[in-house]
Design brief:
about 60 residues; 4 helices; about 50% helix; globular
Length: about 60
């Protein structure tokens, strides 16, 4: 499980994620960031019904 956007970005850059996820994150970047700024989760849906939920970590978890 990826727990931060920086870790997800690293996986995307080194090709460790499926192409659909890489393409969708790139295409929807502004929408994802906007949802996160509003503390809302953002769900990406893959071609075979996969679901990836991106959400902000709880403040206590982020501080740890």
């Amino acid at each position: 499980m990826v727990t931060s956007l920086s870790k997800l970005a690293a996986l995307i850059q080194d090709g460790s994620v499926p192409a659909w996820l890489r393409e969708t994150v790139t295409a929807k970047r502004a929408e994802i960031l906007s949802a996160l700024e509003q503390n809302q989760p953002y769900t990406l849906t893959g071609p075979h019904g996969e679901a990836v939920i991106i959400q902000r970590a709880a403040e206590a978890a982020a501080a740890a």
